[in-house]
């Protein structure tokens, strides 16, 4: 009764006590041979320790697919333009292209993003249709707030997505065209004076191409590797994380084994602990609302390589955080089905006859429906020559 009379909430006191007693995990990895050190810290020490893991960068490079957004765009491309048959082709392409990619030197993503999408799925389709995906598809939890706090580091987003989708995502997090380098498809004007895809590509940004773009900027801006940081979830490929000063957010195991810093959290706001230079974000990070975004695990690698035991532990945190993220998105009401409905409404009010677009694509793909392996062969033939020409430009 004494607490209530003084205006205090005993439940709040218990909650504050639990938070004060809670421990947070920081791991210092010493390489496969020497194992790793586990540090269980209270919140104050955890924030202090993690704020010293990253040098203040002069420029930040960011991933987009599965990092600033949740990865819906490829699924939406098929469901919007090609209905259920698109899924069949996607599965066949993924299976065959990965095998072909492993046997040769063409990136797996090149087959789909630089040949299948521009030449088969989207050719003659108005670019407006693709822009709508970027305007309506889901952003990753916390992405807008995360970008707000790192804008001063002149972030540059590198994306394999076609420009028309990527620029819409970038705008939604408060950035602009100068903050984006993405894959670009060739565009032409049709007889109705609308911009449509012409087939073929102008630029491809994926896998090794991202690390090459970063190297180009390092030279052009007179920066060193320690002056920049790349942050993503693994969509750029192993080479970027192994060669560039990087932070991996909820990465798969092949990326977790290469990145200097890995962090497992339920929101991109979890990343802010690394940008608390000189305690400048203490007010934000110490607030009650931010409590739910505290990472479940941060791993700093003093040496290259990780033991199997550490990778297993990181994978457990990956599964944990992916489950939390899934629940957060589901309970927000921002479901995949709601995104599809919003896109349909937008098309219904636009100049585009989507029935006509889908019929055009279906007619073009008709010859491959009974023999999808022919589609795989044709895509491989184009990809082989296109990638060769692309790499010599």
Secondary-structure blueprint of this entry?
Elements lengths: L1 H4 L4 H12 L2 E6 L6 E6 L1 H8 L8 E4 L10 H9 L1 H21 L4 H14 L5 H10 L6 H8 L5 E7 H10 L7 E10 L5 E9 L4 H13 L7 E5 L5 H6 L2 E4 L3 H4 L4 E4 L17 H4 L11 E5 L6 H24 L4 H13 L5 H16 L2 H21 L1
Parallel strand pairs: 1-10, 3-4, 3-7, 4-5, 7-8, 8-9
Antiparallel strand pairs: 1-2, 5-6, 9-10
Helix pairs in contact: 4-5, 5-6, 5-17, 6-17, 7-9, 7-15
Structure description:
With 393 residues, this protein is α/β, with parallel strands linked by helices. It has a single domain, classed as HAD superfamily/HAD-like (Rossmann fold). Helices cover 50% and strands 15% of the residues. Strands 2-1-10-9-8-7-3-4-5-6 form a ten-stranded mixed beta sheet, sandwiched between helices. A hairpin with a 5-residue loop joins β5 and β6 (195-203). α4 packs across α5, α5 (83-103) runs antiparallel to α6 and α7 (127-136) crosses α15. The longest helix has 24 residues, at 308-331.
State the low-pLDDT regions, or none: 1-7
Briefly note the CATH topology name. Answer: Rossmann fold
> What is the typical, i.e. mean, pLDDT?
87
- Multimeric status of the protein: single chain
Question: How are helices and strands ordered from N to C?
Answer: HHEEHEHHHHHEHEEHEHEHEHEHHHH
* Class by SSE composition: alpha/beta
Largest sheet: 10 strands, mixed
User: What is the helix tally?
Assistant: 17
What is the C-alpha radius of gyration, as a whole number of Å?
Answer: 23 Å
Under CATH, the homologous superfamily reads HAD superfamily/HAD-like
């Amino acid at each position: 009764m004494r607490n209530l009379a003084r205006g205090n909430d005993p439940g709040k006191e218990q909650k504050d006590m639990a938070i004060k007693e809670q421990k947070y995990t920081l791991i210092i990895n010493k390489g496969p041979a020497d194992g790793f050190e586990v540090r269980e810290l209270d919140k104050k020490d955890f924030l202090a320790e993690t704020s010293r893991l990253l040098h203040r960068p002069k420029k930040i490079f960011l991933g987009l697919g599965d990092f600033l957004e949740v990865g819906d765009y490829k699924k939406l491309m098929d469901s919007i333009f090609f209905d259920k048959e698109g899924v069949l082709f996607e599965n066949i392409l993924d299976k065959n292209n990965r095998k072909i990619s492993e046997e040769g030197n063409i990136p797996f993503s090149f087959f789909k993003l630089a040949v299948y999408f521009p030449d088969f799925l989207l050719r003659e389709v108005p670019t407006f249709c693709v822009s709508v995906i970027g305007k309506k598809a889901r952003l990753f939890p916390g992405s807008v707030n995360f970008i707000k706090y790192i804008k001063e580091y002149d972030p540059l987003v590198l994306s394999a997505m076609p420009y028309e989708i990527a620029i819409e995502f970038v705008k939604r997090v408060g950035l602009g065209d100068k903050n984006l380098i993405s894959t670009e498809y060739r565009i032409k004007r049709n007889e109705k004076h609308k911009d449509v895809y012409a087939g073929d590509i102008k630029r491809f940004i994926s896998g090794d191409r991202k690390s090459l773009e970063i190297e180009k900027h390092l030279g052009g801006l007179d920066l060193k590797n320690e002056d920049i940081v790349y942050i993503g979830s693994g969509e750029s490929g192993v080479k970027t994380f192994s060669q560039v000063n990087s932070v991996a957010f909820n990465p798969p195991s092949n990326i977790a084994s290469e990145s200097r810093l890995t962090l497992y959290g339920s929101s991109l706001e979890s990343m802010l602990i690394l940008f608390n230079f000189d305690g400048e974000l203490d007010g934000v990070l110490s607030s009650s609302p931010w409590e739910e975004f505290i990472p479940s695990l941060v791993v700093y690698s003093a040496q290259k390589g990780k033991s199997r035991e550490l990778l297993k532990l990181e994978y457990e945190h990956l599964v944990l955080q992916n489950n939390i993220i899934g629940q957060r998105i589901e309970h927000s009401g921002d479901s995949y089905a709601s995104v599809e409905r919003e896109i349909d409404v937008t098309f219904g009010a636009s100049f585009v006859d989507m029935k006509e677009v889908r019929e055009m694509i279906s007619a073009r793909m008709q010859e491959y429906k009974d023999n999808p392996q022919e589609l795989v062969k044709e895509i491989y033939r184009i990809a082989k020559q296109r990638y060769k020409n692309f790499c010599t430009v």
